[in-house]
Amino acid sequence: MASAHTVAAAGPWPSSTLLTTLFVAGVGSHHLIRPYEIDNYVISLGSAYLATLAATSLGYFQTIAGLDAWTAASHTFALSCVFNAGLVSSILIYRAFFHRLHRFPGPFAAKVSRVYAARASADKLQMHLESQRMHEQYGDFVRTGPRHLSILRSSAIPAIYGPATKCVRSPWYAATPGGLNDLSLLQLRDPEAHKRRKKHWERGLSFKALNSYEPRVRAKADLLLERLAENAGKPIDMTMYGMFYGFDVMSEVGFSKDFNMLKSEKEHPAIMALHSSLTILSVVGGSQPWLLGMMIRIPGASAGYQKFIEWCGDELQARKAAYKKERANSLQDQDPSDVVSWLIKAEEDGEKGAPGSHLSWQEEARLLIVAGSDTTSTVLTNTLYFLASNPGCYQKLQDQVDAALKAEGGDGTTVSHEKIKDVAYLDWLIQETLRLKPAVPGGVTRLTPPEGLQIDEVHIPGDIIVVVPMHSIQRDPRYWGGKEDAVSYRPERWEDLSTEKAPWMAFNRGAGVCPGKNLAFMELRLVLAKIASRFEVPRFAPGFDPQAFDHGSEDRFTMHLPELHLVFTER
Ligand code: HEM
Questions:
Q1: Whole-angstrom Cα distance, residue 203 to residue 108?
Q2: Which positions make up the signal peptide (predicted)?
C-alpha cells in the first residue's frame, strides 16, 4: 500500500466518484458502439482513445493539476485501467449471457472472444479440423466466436450463398487499407458494386476468352510434362511443381507475363515473398480482420506481402502501357489477350464498375494471382495424391483419355481441350478431389440480414457472421453415403450427383461464385489428361509417408500442402 508520503508526492488520488464514473463510462461506451459494425474502424477508434489518454496526461494532470510527467502518466494509466475494466467486463458479460447468440452452443472462450479462434488456428494451422471437432462436440450450429456461427447443414448452403440469399459478405472482406473505391472484386461487399465489377471479370474468363488462352495453358502443361519426363524414375516433389504450374499459367493468362518457374525450377521472388507472409496474415486476419488491416499498414510487419503487392502494381502498370500501345496500333477490334487487359479495357472504355483507384488496381492484380494459382495447384497435387493412392482410378482415367484421343481420327497422343473436355471421368476426379480436399477448407463467411435467417428449425438472428464449413460439410456422412463412403475417394459417385444439388461448394455459389472455375477446369483437365496419356500410375517415392501428406494440409484460408514425393515412369 502507498504510504502517506508517497500519496502526497503523487498528488491527490482520484476520488471514488470519479473512478465509479469512469467504470460506468466504460460500460456505457460498450453499449454505445455495440449496435455498429466497427470492425473496420478499430484502428481509428484505438488511435482516438490513445490521443484522449495523452491529452488527459499532458493537458489535465501535468498542465492543470501540476503533476510531474511520470506521476501524470501513472494517474492516466490507472484511470484508463478503470475505464477498460468497465468496458471489458461489459463486453464479456454481454457476449456470454445476453448476446443474441447466447443460446447457441460452443466453447465458452469462443463465445467471449476471437482470441480463441486465433489460438486454435495458429496451433497447427488446421482450423478446418478444429471446426469439425467442434461440430462433433456441439452439433450442427456452433458458436465459434462472439457473433460467429458455423452451420453444418446442407440447407444452409442455398440460404447463405445461393442466388436468392439476403446475406452479404462479412466485414473480413474489406479489411484492407483504403476506402470503398480501393477494393478488388473479392473485397466488394455492396452487392450492386460487386455485380458491376464482376461483369468485367466474367468477360475475361468467358469460354471465348478461354479458347484464346488455351495454347498458352497447353504450353505450360507441356513444360510440366518435360520436367516429369526428365525426372522419370526418380522422386519429384509434386507440391512444388504443381505450384510452378499454377503460377506460371496464371501469370501468362492473367498478365501476359511469364513467371518462368517451370523453366527455371525456382520460385519467383514475388511469390516467395507472398508465401512467406501468408501464415501470419491468415492466422491474424482470419480471426481479427482489423488486425490484418493494421499489419498491412505498419511498414515491416508484412514485408513479404508488401513486396508482392508492389510487384503486382508494377506489373499492372507495365500491362496497362502495353495494352494502350496495342490499341493505338489499330488492334482495337481485337479482344484483350489476358484477364487483366479485359479490366483495363473496361476502364479505357469508361465502363461502369471498372476498378478506379491505383490501390484497387493493385488489389485486383493481387486477387488474380492469389485466387487463381494456389487454388488450382493444390487441386492438381491433391488429385495426383489420390490417384497414386487409388491406382484403379488412374487406370480408368488412362483408358478414357486414350479412347478420347483416338476418337475421330486422333493420333492417340495429341491432347487438346476440345478432345478431352467431354471425358466425364476427368471432371469426376477433380470434383471428388475438391470434395475431400477443398481449396478453401474453412468455407467463406457471410453476414445475415437484419431480419435474420431461417435454417430448417433454427432462426439465426440478424447481423451474425455465418459460415458453412466446407471441409466438414463435404465429408458429412449424412449427405455422402454413410461414414465409410463419405471419406472414400470414389469419383464414380458423381455419375448420379450434381455439383449444384449436392452439398458441394468448392467454387462457392450464387453471386460470389468463382469466375475462374472454367479456367481452373481447363488447366486441370489438360494437365491430368497429358499425364495419364504419357505416364504409368504415379507411385509414392520410397520412404515417403502418404499419411503424413494426407493429414498435413494447412488451412491458411486457401489450403497449403506439405511436400508430395511421387515417382513417374513413362508408358
Ligand atoms: C480449382 C481452383 C479454384 C477454386 C477451388 C476456387 C475457389 C474459389 C472460391 C471458393 C471462391 C469464393 C471466395 C469467397 O467468396 O471468399 C473464389 C472466388 C474467386 N476466384 Fe476462384 N477458385 C479457383 C480458381 C480460380 C481461378 C483459376 C481464378 C482465375 C482468375 C479464380 C478467380 C477468383 C476470383 C476473382 C474470385 C472472387 C469472386 C467474387 O468476388 O465474386 N479462381 N474461388
A1: 47
A2: none
pLDDT (tens digit per residue) in 451-483: 999 999 999 999 999 999 999 999 999 999 999
The minimum-distance atom of ligand 1 relative to the CA of 444 is 16
Q: Is the ipTM of this complex over 0.90?
A: yes
pLDDT of residue 263: 94
Residue 334 Cα to ligand 1 midpoint, Å, equals 27
* Percent helix, percent strand, percent coil in the chain, to nearest 5: 65, 5, 30
Q: How far is the CA of 371 from the centre of ligand 1 (A)?
A: 5
CA atoms within 13 A on the CB side of 8: 3
Identify the residues whose C-beta falls under 6 Å from ligand 1: 185-186, 198, 201, 339, 367-368, 371-372, 375-376, 379, 434, 439-440, 444, 506-508, 512, 514-516, 519-520
Question: Ligand 1, atom 20: nearest CA belongs to which residue?
Answer: 514
501: buried, middle or exposed (CB in 10 Å: 19+, 13-18, 0-12)?
A: exposed
Whole-number Å distance between alpha carbons of 213 and 250 = 10
Which stretches of the chain score pLDDT less than 50? Answer: 1-9
Sequential DSSP letters for 326-348: HIIIIITTSPPSSHHHHHHHHHH
Q: What is the pTM of this model?
A: 0.89
CA gap 458, 273 in Å, rounded: 44
Buried b (16+ CB within 10 A) or exposed e, 436-464: bbbbbbbbbbbbbeeeebebeeeebbeeb
pLDDT for the residue numbered 292: 60
For atom 27 of ligand 1, the residue with the nearest CA is: 372
Location of C-alpha cell 466438414: 472
Contacts of 295 (CB under 8 A, 6+ apart): 280, 281, 284, 285, 301, 302
By the 8 A CB rule, do 210 and 518 touch?
Answer: yes
Say if residues 73 and 19 touch (Cβ distance below 8 Å): no
3-state secondary structure of 150: strand
Max distance between CA atoms of the chain, in angstroms, equals 102
CA of 65 to the centre of ligand 1 (A): 60
Mutate to test the pocket of ligand 1, among 383, 466, 514, 560 (most ligand atoms within 8 A of CB): 514
The pLDDT score that the predictor gives to residue 289 is: 54
**Structure letter (DSSP) for residue 500:** T
Mode of pairing for the β-strands spanning 446-447 and 168-169: antiparallel
CA of 509 to the centre of ligand 1 (A): 11
- What's the 3-state SS for 54-89? HHHHHHHHHHHCCCCHHHHHHHHHHHHHHHHHHHHH
